[in-house]
């Protein structure tokens, strides 16, 4: 059997890999091994959640940067709506600053 890809949050994959590694050597299983194994699987889940959150933040930041650029263009092109564009630009810049 090939080594499992533990770059997953699927508990079934982690359990099957554990059994593949230690199923025939149950006498080697102790609390320290179990703690290490479960800590690794839990951290993999944490890392995945962090990665997904960062992707969402990156998309939101890109959208806000786009809004700020559009507001600048609108203000430059149309003086009539300049004040509204100015406020949109300032709000977008403030949100981006807070996200940094």
Explained architecture:
This protein is mainly α and 100 residues long. The chain has one domain. 77% of the residues lie in helices and 0% in strands. The radius of gyration is 25 Å and the shape is rod-shaped.
The biggest sheet amounts to: none
Number of strands: 0
User: What is the arithmetic mean of pLDDT?
Assistant: 80
Terminal CA distance = 46 Å
Radius of gyration (CA) equals 25 Å
Number of helices: 3
SSE series = HHH
The computed structural class is mainly alpha
Helix content: over 70%
Strand content: under 5%
Broad shape? rod-shaped
- Domain count: the total is 1
Uncertain spans, ≥5 residues at pLDDT below 50?
none
Task: From the structure above, extract its key features.
100 residues; mainly alpha; 77% helix
Topology readout:
Layout: H1 11-22, H2 31-77, H3 82-99
Helix pairs in contact: 2-3
Summarize this structure briefly:
With 100 residues, this protein is mostly helical.
